[in-house]
Amino acid sequence: MKNNYVLAISLLVSIIVNAQNEQVIQQDTMALGEVTVTSSRINLPFKENSRTITIISSENIKQSAATNLADLLQQEAGIDIRRRGTAGMQADLYIRGGSFDQTLLLIDGIKMDDAQTGHHTMNAALPMEVIERIEIIKGPAARVFGQNAFTGAINIVTKKTTENGLSINLETGSYNQLNGSLTATSNLENSSHIVHLSRLTSDGYRYNTDYDNSNYFIKSIFNKKAQAIEMITNFSERKFGANGFYSSPTAINQYEETQNSLIGFSTQFFSEKWQIKPRAYWKRNQDDYVFVRQDPSIYRNLHITDKIGTEMNASYTSSLGVTGFGIDMSKIYLRSNNLGNRNRFMTTLFVEHQFKLANNQLDITPGVAATYFSDFKFHAFPGIDIGYRLNDNLKAYGNMGYTYRIPTYTDLYYTDPTTNGNENLKPEEALSEEIGIKYFTPTFTVSAALFNRDARKLIDYVKDNAPDKWDATNIRDLNTKGLEINTAYYFSINTFRQNLSLGYTFLEDEVKALNVNFSRYAINSLKHQFTSRLSTQLFKNISQNIVYKYAERTTGDSYNVWDASIMLNIKQFEITATASNIFNAEYYETNLVPMPKGNILFGLRYNFN
């Protein structure tokens, strides 16, 4: 692994030296720094934010050698996607060492949190064909999004239709994978629409890991000539064998079906000083879990969670700066044969203001969010961002904030033969700090950040004696500190654009005194994580991508994984081959579920113009 570090550092030094001498002559180079981050009430260009934010553009998605969102996010430093099987069929999302319950996923700004359990976060993942870009906000984000953004948030921004078109895609590969999708776009005089249908099936890479996944997505914009109204709808259904996915690895006959539904409406009002964005939405998640697939009567859980919400976000620009504020109200309903029938009402008020001083070189943005829960009463989480622009391309920044998450219904009420929930649990809390620096040019970007998080009252399942049941308890205090570096270099060979991206994250977890005999949740963060992607094009119609990932967990387990893809364009056809784990690494990401050995997926896409 030391050789890997030496190679990475050498590449980074070489890139920096070359970047300083690079002439910016490519007209098609993406000015990433000018992309406006939409997941905030105060809209700012990417490079002007005083937080650690990563943008995965549509171009990056094409170059990722990933066929689904879980595989794509795993290539980002600081993101830990713990997958079970292929195609992201079941995966958990972690940011900077937090748990899957401490991360928030959004779609076009709509919060996709699930009150039952964070295990369902990635059920809301959209097909790659409808994603325009992904905004990753790391660090305390509760001040911006409310609870659940304990360690960060990820906002999926969907595509807007600008032309008429139709795309048909067929894929086949290892484990009898057979995938098909259709994406249609229509840009009419006073409305535009994008419709996506897809189905993914496989026999599985080992016993009882077969799956059948269907996706249906529609995004429409009506009344474009006047007050445009945007509608987004999505339905995803997953059916999969879950050999060892949960409980003990010996539970080889588990099975699960999930359905995730979303419909939302939004619009925007603009004036010289005002920007107002109202939104209303309904989200549902259904989860049917069976312990023994061949005999559901042995043990079965069925949960249905509905969330109905409305929010209004606004900003006002004055001589004193920009003020952002908003209100978010939602009602949650849960029906479950294990957790009971529950409901919760939530209201969150947000306010922040950005001051610009020292000839606009210094920006200071304090803010606070206050939330009322019908079952957890009032909670407030203030924070502040500070940034200083050293020149047009270089900025130093820091931020600090309180963050928290309330227990899920699984934490509170779940029971089975080995586990007891605890309805008296308190919210988890943390104070997080971060300092960083970022440098941008059209051909080279680099960012580095140091961060620290002191978390209290973390929920763990503990017991005194081996035969006892696990009891949910606010017992764990944890300090997490770390370093994160990201860099990307764009260059040309024979007029063709190339890209090299590198990322590294170091995490150190320190568990405070934990006076229990048995603890279920051992800390298993990514202590060292190195990611890299080389995207090249040497000929007009052929491009290729190589992805390398190194991970070392706090338990000492480590692994190296290589992925690759190649794409051939022939007029309206795209022919692709995507290879995963090409050197047959043996490794686990979670729960002792072995990841698949080398496998390949061939694709053929036809685009009607």
Question: Would you kindly provide a written description of the structure presented here, covering whatever features stand out?
Answer:
The protein has helices at 2-21, 58-62, 69-73, 142-145, 409-413; strands spanning 36-37, 44-45, 52-56, 79-84, 90-95, 103-107, 110-111, 131-138, 152-158, 165-173, 177-187, 191-202, 211-222, 229-241, 255-267, 269-270, 274-290, 300-318, 321-336, 342-357, 362-373, 377-389, 394-405, 415-416, 419-420, 428-440, 444-463, 470-493, 496-511, 518-519, 526-539, 542-553, 558-570, 573-580, 599-608. The chain is mainly beta. The protein has one domain: TonB-dependent receptor, beta-barrel domain (Maltoporin, Chain A). It is built from five helices and 35 strands.
Q: What are the segments in which pLDDT stays under 50 over at least 5 consecutive residues? A: 1-30
Broad shape: globular
N-to-C span: 48 Å
In total, the number of strands is: 35
Please bin the fraction of helical residues: under 10%
